Amino acid sequence: MAGSPRRAASRRLQLPLLCLLFQGATTILFAIFVRYNHETDAALWHWGNHSNANNEFYFRYPSFQDVHAMVFVGFGFLMVFLQRYGFSSVGFTFLLAAFALQWSTLVQGFLHSFYSGHIHIGIESMINADFCAGAVLISFGAILGKTGPPQLLLMTLLEVALFGINEFVLLNLLGVRDAGGSMTIHTFGAYFGLFLSRVLYRPQLEKSKHRQSSIYHSDLFAMIGTIFLWIFWPSFNSAPTSLGDTQHRTALNTYYSLTASTLSTFALSALVSGDGRLDMVHIQNAALAGGVVVGTSGEMMLTPFGALAAGFLAGTVSTLGYKFLTPILESKFKIQDTCGIHNLHGMPGVLGALLGVLVAGLSTHDAYGDGLESVFPLIAKGQRSATSQAIHQLFGLFVTLVLATVGGSLGGE
Amino acid sequence: MAGSPRRAASRRLQLPLLCLLFQGATTILFAIFVRYNHETDAALWHWGNHSNANNEFYFRYPSFQDVHAMVFVGFGFLMVFLQRYGFSSVGFTFLLAAFALQWSTLVQGFLHSFYSGHIHIGIESMINADFCAGAVLISFGAILGKTGPPQLLLMTLLEVALFGINEFVLLNLLGVRDAGGSMTIHTFGAYFGLFLSRVLYRPQLEKSKHRQSSIYHSDLFAMIGTIFLWIFWPSFNSAPTSLGDTQHRTALNTYYSLTASTLSTFALSALVSGDGRLDMVHIQNAALAGGVVVGTSGEMMLTPFGALAAGFLAGTVSTLGYKFLTPILESKFKIQDTCGIHNLHGMPGVLGALLGVLVAGLSTHDAYGDGLESVFPLIAKGQRSATSQAIHQLFGLFVTLVLATVGGSLGGE
Amino acid sequence: MAGSPRRAASRRLQLPLLCLLFQGATTILFAIFVRYNHETDAALWHWGNHSNANNEFYFRYPSFQDVHAMVFVGFGFLMVFLQRYGFSSVGFTFLLAAFALQWSTLVQGFLHSFYSGHIHIGIESMINADFCAGAVLISFGAILGKTGPPQLLLMTLLEVALFGINEFVLLNLLGVRDAGGSMTIHTFGAYFGLFLSRVLYRPQLEKSKHRQSSIYHSDLFAMIGTIFLWIFWPSFNSAPTSLGDTQHRTALNTYYSLTASTLSTFALSALVSGDGRLDMVHIQNAALAGGVVVGTSGEMMLTPFGALAAGFLAGTVSTLGYKFLTPILESKFKIQDTCGIHNLHGMPGVLGALLGVLVAGLSTHDAYGDGLESVFPLIAKGQRSATSQAIHQLFGLFVTLVLATVGGSLGGE
């Protein structure tokens, strides 16, 4: 009889102890391995006698802050409120994201900036850590309300590690281009979460129960998330690109792609409903698909027309997904996609990867001139043809899907 | 008898078909006409061998993002929630703004950056498109709840075209200065909307009905919009100015003007109420009038004192307008100004234009030194006297008022 | 009998007349004393023939806008909604902050940029004015609901003046380093507010009454404030530092410190509650303590490990403060800390000052190289040893505590 309260007490201690354990471990690992890089270390920076105007920090910081705002305000508010899991969920996404930032700094640091026995950090590591936290929050959009915080923390541990490995394989080993993360962030995050969700399938989960109360204000809060994502997505896709025309072009392509996905979402949402009325869930999500779909090709010479066409397609596919595919995923495949991440991140992410295959395969020296070096360095150096780059891009999508589905399935066990 | 459901069905199809038609048309026009400019095209940029530090993109992008946030968060939340037209209105402003961004890229592109048979786009076209979307949202603040989404889309088509023409006449033909758009954005948007509203006059529209429920949380949402507009207005006015001291000075003038309009709004709001209590509608709107009133003169040598005095005056006039003028507009002129745009954008916009006339007329070579070239290039080149510039500014206001009122009246037919 | 309505009328006129008086006085003082500086004056800037790329404005403006957003969205929403004093409080913090921006421009201008008989303003004066407005809003977090708006305006008058004097003594006379304001903003603002609160002690103030209604949505609004503060704090601490590696390092340290304070807050909040549930007030506040605690040392060579350890400690102390210290402050010392500013700003501010003493004392030429000049100019010039700098830092904390407590006690009379 004493067992039950004792077990309850130990369950109560799980979350705080896990937080303390994880924070303790990352603090020790930071002490051993993590150092300022040449731009953040006082002695290293001034030794080279750099001028302030050449400090990459100033070219990247505004984009970084927009990404940071998107991840925390956008994903936090949109995903959580959408299905009305209420306040504690906002709190937990906050915790998971904060842990993901630290842990991915270590994982990505070992893979990307480890030399002389240390990890070196600066603005790039902050942007990359935020990207990883974004993928984690996407995944949890599929499993909200199905498992407890200690389990979520453990899954974050796994997902961040796999995210780092997948990104390393794609960008460093395969020479794949994926600045805005159609593959590494959206496809990976979505399918990891969906396969997690499959393992955690709970037939008794009633969606309707969560929808009954306070829908009006929840929708407004979700709309704050939507608008934040919409306005900052150009910064998200362009944050890690080469400086100059590439970053500028990426922001421009994303901006116009989003306007087109917004129009196609309104059109399709009204068409597929029986009575011509708009479904606010479509507006809050599918309107953003234009940002996801140019994640890979946004830095390429997609052309302004290409950006509009891509956005239009993404909004259409995403809205149709909400209407027709999500119910099938649950009934046939036992995948309960709580926030519809398959429609906002999964399908538009795969589409974006395929669009990247196409645009990379069509790239020519004429179209890029000397700018080819910034976008496709391997083609510029003559180590790869455009067709070969396209094939590598396609293989990168395949690797991402394998790692995400296997990882998600394992993570749920 | 079969006619009625058929008509209902055709009405249901109006919005989606219009969205698809408009998106299809802009996509085709983009394919034919729109190209990257020299800063966003990989081949063009690298051909000139520019360094990153000289890329204008990096000087303008942070301001652009603030403008983008203002237009979507600020105007969206403030205008809609103010009169509690609820969620669907937020959705529609989102749709209208997205369409306005595409369509104004085409209209403004033909007028401003059309050469070699193409429109060339980059960060400036994104800023200008956002400015135009801002004017559209201002106008719809006067007609919310009075007409359906298909009509709103058609009016956007008209207003964007007229906005582009008015801006072209003022800036390019008349040589008028109006960086922050006191005339081109606020005066134009407000009077276009007010004259639309007059044509759409609905005597049975009961304002009180919309105010009864959920006022507390609606006011908080509106306050989010107000604060976003307040903090980002310095970026709005300075986004399109010359780089260097001009942009810096514009942000500074706007910042201080807003502090003064805030104090005068609180003072006047308490004075004009019978019982000393503040009216939240005044705070949410009139406090922002300081941003509107320095839209033209913010880039000029207004002096810090001038910024405070202008803000003080604008807050005063705007608050008095809510109290005394808005009821008269409705009862005598049948103009139902749903969100009070005449007080926030109309009168402060006209005041801002007149302040621009004054400050331009007082400009001297001594006060501006070599900086005269950036602010008044025609005076610097000796093609115009300060007095002549002032007269041109005044004529610009006249043109704006004519185009806005005629356009608004036609738009409502 | 006629006296009572007359007195009521005069009370109604207090706020508007005070607003008009203050606005009139600052406008006259601006006219006499305030001028554009060499970066905002058209003639002065172009005279020197500066290039745009060297314009400090472009390095500082993005950080400035984040600070501006933090002060108005963050402090406004977080502090007010936390204890549910409702809409009018948001309005008043808006008024107080707007007045503080003008008045602190004058006070700080006389102390810092007064030459040739004038105060010279630009981006630095906007950042400094926002910092001062932040301190004012922190203080009012302790006295919300205890006194009327006219009294709050008078206290702002006093606090802004003392804030300027304290900052001048620390930074200019004592050569203390405090970029992110652990001492000048957080410690000063918190203890000024707490001693004000003591004088305004109202035993009948029932906290519980304010908590009963609409907690769910109020918590969501407060969470918007929390997330804004969390994402923009790296900009807050780095806004006034030297350009280059120092600003970059400060943002990095703050970013990681906040992740650690978030994890320790979740751990401690669950541990100290009887039933393992999280207290949302802890999450909304203590998670931010990591930003406060590196306010002084963030620009120093704190190391990434140091940032995590500091954040961890701050989150722990802050959460324990809410649980154990706040009730004692009220019962034993008659300090009703309405929003818990002692836990978010007071203790973490003092901790941050002490951490600054430690890190300054440990600074060596080896660790900073030529970068020592940017962080500790007096040590670099050989005018001071590291130990002497540490002692000056400690004395700076002492001065801040004395000025804040004496000022707060006087302000309440």
UniProtKB/TrEMBL annotation, chains A, B, C:
<feature type="transmembrane region" description="Helical">
    <location>
        <begin position="15"/>
        <end position="36"/>
    </location>
</feature>
<keyword id="KW-1003">Cell membrane</keyword>
<keyword id="KW-0325">Glycoprotein</keyword>
<keyword id="KW-0472">Membrane</keyword>
<dbReference type="GO" id="GO:0097272">
    <property type="term" value="P:ammonium homeostasis"/>
</dbReference>
<dbReference type="InterPro" id="IPR024041">
    <property type="entry name" value="NH4_transpt_AmtB-like_dom"/>
</dbReference>
<feature type="transmembrane region" description="Helical">
    <location>
        <begin position="213"/>
        <end position="233"/>
    </location>
</feature>
<feature type="transmembrane region" description="Helical">
    <location>
        <begin position="152"/>
        <end position="171"/>
    </location>
</feature>
<dbReference type="InterPro" id="IPR002229">
    <property type="entry name" value="RhesusRHD"/>
</dbReference>
<keyword id="KW-1133">Transmembrane helix</keyword>
<feature type="transmembrane region" description="Helical">
    <location>
        <begin position="305"/>
        <end position="325"/>
    </location>
</feature>
<dbReference type="InterPro" id="IPR029020">
    <property type="entry name" value="Ammonium/urea_transptr"/>
</dbReference>
<dbReference type="GO" id="GO:0008519">
    <property type="term" value="F:ammonium channel activity"/>
</dbReference>
<feature type="transmembrane region" description="Helical">
    <location>
        <begin position="183"/>
        <end position="201"/>
    </location>
</feature>
<feature type="transmembrane region" description="Helical">
    <location>
        <begin position="67"/>
        <end position="87"/>
    </location>
</feature>
<keyword id="KW-0813">Transport</keyword>
<feature type="transmembrane region" description="Helical">
    <location>
        <begin position="127"/>
        <end position="145"/>
    </location>
</feature>
<feature type="transmembrane region" description="Helical">
    <location>
        <begin position="94"/>
        <end position="115"/>
    </location>
</feature>
<comment type="subunit">
    <text>Interacts (via C-terminus) with ANK2 and ANK3; required for targeting to the basolateral membrane.</text>
</comment>
<comment type="function">
    <text>Ammonium transporter involved in the maintenance of acid-base homeostasis. Transports ammonium and its related derivative methylammonium across the basolateral plasma membrane of epithelial cells likely contributing to renal transepithelial ammonia transport and ammonia metabolism. May transport either NH4(+) or NH3 ammonia species predominantly mediating an electrogenic NH4(+) transport. May act as a CO2 channel providing for renal acid secretion.</text>
</comment>
<protein>
    <recommendedName>
        <fullName>Ammonium transporter Rh type B</fullName>
    </recommendedName>
</protein>
<comment type="similarity">
    <text>Belongs to the ammonium transporter (TC 2.A.49) family. Rh subfamily.</text>
</comment>
<dbReference type="Pfam" id="PF00909">
    <property type="entry name" value="Ammonium_transp"/>
</dbReference>
<keyword id="KW-0924">Ammonia transport</keyword>
<dbReference type="GO" id="GO:0016323">
    <property type="term" value="C:basolateral plasma membrane"/>
</dbReference>
<feature type="transmembrane region" description="Helical">
    <location>
        <begin position="394"/>
        <end position="412"/>
    </location>
</feature>
<keyword id="KW-0812">Transmembrane</keyword>
<feature type="domain" description="Ammonium transporter AmtB-like">
    <location>
        <begin position="26"/>
        <end position="408"/>
    </location>
</feature>
